[in-house]
Structure formats: C-alpha cells, structure tokens
Amino acid sequence: MRSIVLIALSLVIAAFAGVPRSKPNLEANRRLIEQMFTRRFTEPKKQAPARDDSSTRPISEHFFSTEVDHFNAQNTDQWTLRYFASADNYVQGGPILIFLGGTRPITPSMIDDTTLIYEMAREWNGALFAFEPRFYGESRVTEDLSTENLSLLSTDQILADLAEFVTYVRRELVEDETARVLVAGTELGGSLAAWFRIRYPHLGNAAWASSAYMNAVLGFDDFSEAWGDSLIAHGSQECYNEIFVAFHVMQNLIDLGMADLLFEKFNICSEIDPENTFQVQYFFSILMISVEIYTIRNNDLADFAEVCDDLTAGGTDSAVESFANWFNEKWVEDLGCVVSDPAQAIEIFQDPDWDSDFNQQGARQWMYQECTEFGWFFTTESAFQPFGDRVSIDFYVEWCRQIFGDWITMESVQRGINRANNRFGGDNPGSSLTHFTNGDADPWRMISITRNLTLDAQADIISNQLGGSDLSAMSPDDPADLAEVKQRLKLTLASYLFPFSPYESP
Questions:
Q1: Is 0.85 surpassed by the pTM of this model?
Q2: Is the same domain home to 106 and 232?
Q3: Which of 86, 152, 221, 290 lies most in the core, judged by the most C-beta atoms within 10 Å?
Q4: Dist. CA 263–CA 338, nearest whole Å
Q5: In percent, how much of the chain has pLDDT > 90?
Q6: Domain that holds residue 177
C-alpha cells in the first residue's frame, strides 16, 4: 500500500502544478459549516411502509412541568418539557409506551402509524408518547445555552425528568398508577431507555434499546474500523482503497510542506498551516464527517454504493482529485470555500442562542454531552481504517476546551466517561427486561450491546442493516431477518410487560 501512496503522491503533484489561488468567501464558508453539522444532527429519513394517508392518527403536542434541578433542594424552579401523545388506541388498563428522543428534536413521525411502537400500542391497547429530553428541541430549561446553563444538561437530570413524567402520565393522564410502562428509543434515546430501566426499574417495566450507545469511550477508533468494514461489504474494496490513498497522499503533501497544492483542488478558504496541528486535524476531521454523513446518516445501505460509484467512476488523475471532486460536488456547490480555519466552526459552536438553526438541531448540546459524559470521538489512531492517522484524542479535547472553557481537560473528559460507565455499567450493564437491537453494518454497534447478557436482557443483530432499521412498522417488504426481529421484539416486550397475560411468550 505504501508504494501505491507514493505513486499517487507524484501524480497529484504533477496534476496540481501551477494551480491559481482563489479568493475565499467567508460568509459562504460559515453557511457550509452550519450545513455540514446540522445535516449530521437532523433526523434521518425514515423507511416507512406504504400506507393509505387516510389511516393517519391524531398526534397532539403538550408540555409538562418539572424541576430545573432534581438534585438541588435549594432550587425550586420549574420548567416545561415537550411531549407528543397518541391516545386513540388506549383502553383503561393498557400499558404506557414512551419513545425517547435522543440528541435531536422529537417529531410526530417517531410515534405515528408507520412505526413499530405504534403497532405495539395498537395491539396492546396502549397510550403512546414521544418524550423530548431537556435542552433539545423545544424543551428549553434555561433562557439560553450558555456553558453555565448547560451544567443542567446531564443523563441523570434527563432520567429524573423522565421519572417525573412517568409518574405524571400514570397519575394524571391514564389514571392508573400501576400501568405497565415500556420505554424505547434509538441511538442516545435507546441508551436512555436502557439506563432508565437500570436506574428506575419500578417506573420502567421494560425497555427496548435500538442501536443504543452504551459504552462510553474516549477515542472511538472502532467506529472508523467498522465503517471501513461496511464500506468494503456494501461499497467495494476499490472504494476503500481510493479513500485510503486519498487521505494518506493529502497527509504526505502537508508533511512535505506542499499543502498549497490542496488549496485550489478543495477550494480551501485559507491555506493550511502544516505547523498548526490543530488546524490540520480539523481539516481531516471535516473530510471524515462528510463521508460519514453521505454513507450512514440516512440509514440506507444503498448510500455506500452511491458514494463508491462516484469515487471510482474514473476520469481523474489521482485518488485525491477524485475525492476532492466528490466533496466539492456534495458540499461546496454554490457555497464558496471549504473551511480550513477551526476558529470559525468553534465560533458557531460557542453561540448560546436557542433559535439558531445549529442549536435547534442539538449540535452544541450534544457536543457538550460528548465532552462531559461520553467521549465517542471519531479518532484515526488505528491502522485498520481508511482515514489516515491525523485525528487524535488531543484534537477533540482541545476542541471541547475552546468551545466550553479551560475547565475542560483530558482528565476531566476521562472522569466524565468513567463516571458514566460506573453509573450505568458500560458494555456490561446490569440490565433486565431489556431488549437490544443493532444492525450488523452500523459502526455504532461497537459501543452498543450485541450479545445476550441474561435470559431477560438479550440482543439481536440484524443482518445487512444500519441503525434503527427495526423502528418502522412491519411490512411485506421487510427482509426475512428484519421481519423476524420485529416479530420477536413484539413478543419479547409483551412478555416483559404482561408476564401473566395471554400474550404468547417468545
């Protein structure tokens, strides 16, 4: 592979010789940053089964008041969190089903009649809700998202909100204080479901954790490795090699003091300073994020093949040129230049305004939780992935420090990760009456639960799927493995909620 990189490097140098400079458009650059990061945090498109639009059921928006700080008896302030409700299937004595939002605003589509949880509510005569965690969407605890106010954003606070909400629903809405409760979610929402069952087993009778992020880690090299495996399986080995060569050649150009050769090809706003390690790492992290978004974000494996077809179509002199053409087509079209100065992105992350599009999608909030609780930073310190070796833990810790303050250090981030795993068990949680599901092509499965823990805490790995494939209602178009998992989910969760009922046990 090294010889391939050297040959590619010589081709790039020859192709880029004499390239003129371009004048940056910094306002367009800011829009590019916002587009890239908000795209990463928006809800992925849902693969919904076909339906008659007349079958759509009413879903209503409501707000519930609870404590600003559940762990400070001296603070009696209240705030209101948002939730959606669908009660058309409810019959007195039926269960409560709650789908938990994760790191993005809740939407009615999370519990509409195209979802599996709606099917469960219909079959079990249940009341169905979508719960929005504090600081996301319209669940605004404080007047802004200043770093000081974000101290009230933590997993423990979210779970305490949920505990109050379950009590409220039982007592005030369904008027049944013994109603059985299923909590469910995907990604961080799935984590919250599993953790709620651990922390409040008397309030959450069963949990469904779909593609749940469970084990907090500092450097998430496993993500890059697993992403590479999925690229080969659902794209091609040639495509993997193309990305590998492109990233390594770009690194070599910078090391040789020839970063200016990337200036025009990527339409970079300002030249990369090879001596500025933070800037170099930021540039490569942006390129990584771009590939992640276009292959994983939509939860559609066909996206891997689409990206690979573009990258391996030919007609270019080098892997770098091929990758640059793809990147520019996807991101830079009519938007100006590519960000190469991390200060501009940091400025956007520092904005505490609730109403910015960036914060509406939860980007600043999620970054805060990563920096203080979970880590999960996409690093490239493993040789078994295609993104080079320039994105390190040091970069992300410095990124957190510049956004939130000097109080963030490597030690503080590691303490938060240790605390989360000590609190909830990491990859060996003391779970019961919980079912975990993951797609075998989803890189996030590497920090999820993919093995059976106990007889009543088991896991399904769904072949040829990314994350959240089990969320949609059962469909004749479902592959056999996916259909089997969905059916097992309904039977398993029914047996957890109704252990002495006529529902058939799995």
A1: yes
A2: no
A3: 86
A4: 9
A5: 73
A6: 56-215+427-497
